[in-house]
Specification:
By secondary structure, the protein is of the alpha/beta class. Helix content is about 35%, strand content about 20%. It is globular, with a radius of gyration of 14 Å.
Length: about 120
């Protein structure tokens, strides 16, 4: 059986505090790169809190820097940010903000979905 590269959408919906679920999403994203897949991270719902500049990045720093070093895409739901009063200036640089149409496109273009 031949290995085939896949487009993987990693959806982070859980809060970054009190659990390691968020952390595991970052770990999975780096693992997908290591397996020659093409991951995209999409932060929705309470997962957008993970992107705040004020969050302690220590637990994810190694994974975040590795993921970004391989030009991994990080996206956030515009509606989720707005619902929580979070502006673009409140989150990490280089986060692509997607409206509903953009999220729909990601759901259509990716072959595999992992939700955290």
């Amino acid at each position: 059986m031949d290995f085939e590269e896949r487009k993987v959408l990693i959806i982070i919906r859980s809060r970054p505090f009190g659990t390691i679920i968020n952390f595991e999403g970052w770990r999975a994203a780096v693992g997908m790169i290591g397996m020659d897949h093409e991951p995209t991270m999409l932060f929705m719902g309470d997962g957008v809190y993970s992107l705040l500049r004020t969050m302690d990045q220590t637990p994810i720093q190694m994974f975040k820097s590795t993921y970004e070093g391989f030009d991994g895409r990080i996206c956030a739901s515009k509606e989720s940010l707005e619902a929580r009063g979070i502006s673009h200036s409140d989150i990490f640089d280089d986060v692509e903000i997607l409206d509903e149409r953009g999220i729909g496109r990601e759901l259509t273009e990716n072959e595999v979905f992992l939700t955290f």
